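[job 4471] stage=fold_predict status=RUNNING
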Amino acid sequence: MAGTDPTLNTLIEFNAPLPVDILFCPRMSCSVFDNIAMGFAQPLIGTFVIPIGDLMHDLIKERLEETEALEDVVAKVKKFVTGELIAASFRSMVKAKQEEENKKLEAELEAVRIKQAVKDKIA
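[job 4471] inference complete, writing structure tokens
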């Protein structure tokens, strides 16, 4: 692994119980050291922080949003399967058609009334 551009492929894994309360959620501080000359010198290369608590809460929030979306999809599929969605769509389509026909009939009736009023004035 020595050289000007070493590749570090080390996985460190451990399980630990973590608090869920946002006030006590941890952040993991990490320090990276370079072992040159078989450990005689250990200069600090860098440090970084992994916000474990923030990541946990973001994941929980994301899962809740996904669960709500899936529940909505399941409810719509159930409505579709039982025919409620199709029936509601058909009812709205019929209602729109009826309203259109009513408007046409009202326009024709108004035209007849105007013609009748003109005839009455002439007579």
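[job 4471] summary: The chain has one domain: 28-122.
[job 4471] exit 0
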